[in-house]
């Protein structure tokens, strides 16, 4: 038996199962990859918010990474919640020599507005992590924190993408899901522009959208797709996952990572 593509997620754990490591691994399985994990933080989290968060020691993060990469190897890496400057710097050091594409999801705030990245870690993300990214996938809130640009339209998305590219990633995917109208994203490397548009589904249960999209991009890269093709495939997957999102608990439910499985039955 040939092993499926190997994708590593470096992120925090979401005890409610909608985002973070749990969403990443579900996405990887749904898209045909073997998911592996380096847990950077543990959160007590459910459909109404984050009740607590505890980052793991840098030594634990390094040990998990070395265990996976030195024995099993990786064909793509995705980063998510890194919490502190020390963790951002440690992960950047680990990824400096990784022979695989890297997808950086610069997670800073949860779906419910809870802080997941220390304010003093933003500079480390800009200067240490983004230069290692094959593609970075910020939403508009994360764009504002990283660049100081408040995006209100597609012209603003272009300006923000240019600023983000100046930090060193090869590609930037500015996600415009918070703007009115179609769910429109801009993917660019500074030379080519790809505008990805999808219908906006009337469904409030969208917890885990960003983690899911970034993980899906990582799977596409592990499968050998180009960045534009990997992002298009990921956009299609997450659009249907949002459409199938379901209520869970008293607040915002998750996207449905297994929608393809249910579509077949």
TrEMBL record:
Residues in Pyridoxamine kinase/Phosphomethylpyrimidine kinase domain copies: 14-256
Pathway: Cofactor biosynthesis; thiamine diphosphate biosynthesis; 4-amino-2-methyl-5-diphosphomethylpyrimidine from 5-amino-1-(5-phospho-D-ribosyl)imidazole: step 3/3
The name this protein goes by in its record: Bifunctional hydroxymethylpyrimidine kinase/phosphomethylpyrimidine kinase
GO molecular-function terms, A-Z: hydroxymethylpyrimidine kinase activity; phosphomethylpyrimidine kinase activity
CDD domains: HMPP_kinase
Pfam families registered for this protein in UniProt: Phos_pyr_kin
InterPro entries: HMP/HMP-P_kinase_dom, PM/HMP-P_kinase-1, Ribokinase-like
Catalysed reactions listed for this entry: 4-amino-2-methyl-5-(phosphooxymethyl)pyrimidine + ATP = 4-amino-2-methyl-5-(diphosphooxymethyl)pyrimidine + ADP; 4-amino-5-hydroxymethyl-2-methylpyrimidine + ATP = 4-amino-2-methyl-5-(phosphooxymethyl)pyrimidine + ADP + H(+)
EC number(s) from the headed UniProt entry: 2.7.1.49, 2.7.4.7
Role this protein plays: Catalyzes the phosphorylation of hydroxymethylpyrimidine phosphate (HMP-P) to HMP-PP, and of HMP to HMP-P.
Primary enzyme class: transferase
Keyword entries, A-Z: Kinase, Thiamine biosynthesis, Transferase
Domain of life from the UniProt record: Bacteria
């Amino acid at each position: 038996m040939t092993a499926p593509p190997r994708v590593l997620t470096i992120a925090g754990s979401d005890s409610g199962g909608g985002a973070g490591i749990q969403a990443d691994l579900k996405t990887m399985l749904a898209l045909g990859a073997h998911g592996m994990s380096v847990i950077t933080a543990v959160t007590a989290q459910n459909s109404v918010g984050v009740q607590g968060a505890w980052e793991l020691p840098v030594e634990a993060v390094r040990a998990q990474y070395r265990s996976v990469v030195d024995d099993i190897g990786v064909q793509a890496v995705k980063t998510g919640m890194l919490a502190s400057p020390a963790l951002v710097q440690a992960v950047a050091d680990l990824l400096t020599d990784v022979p695989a594409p890297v997808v950086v999801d610069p997670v800073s705030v949860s779906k419910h507005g809870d802080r997941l990245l220390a304010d003093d870690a933003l500079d480390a993300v800009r200067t240490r992590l983004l230069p290692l990214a094959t593609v970075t996938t910020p939403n508009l809130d994360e764009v504002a924190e990283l660049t100081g640009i408040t995006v209100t339209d597609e012209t603003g998305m272009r300006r923000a993408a240019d600023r983000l590219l100046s930090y060193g990633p090869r590609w930037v995917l500015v996600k415009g899901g918070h703007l009115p109208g179609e769910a429109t994203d801009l993917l660019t490397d500074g030379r080519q522009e790809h505008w990805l548009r999808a219908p906006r589904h009337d469904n409030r249960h969208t917890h885990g959208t960003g983690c899911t999209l970034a993980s899906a991009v990582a799977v596409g890269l592990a499968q050998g797709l180009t960045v534009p093709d990997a992002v298009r495939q990921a956009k299609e997957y997450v659009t249907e996952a949002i459409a199938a999102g379901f209520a869970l608990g008293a607040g915002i439910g998750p996207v449905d990572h297994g929608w393809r499985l249910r579509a077949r039955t």
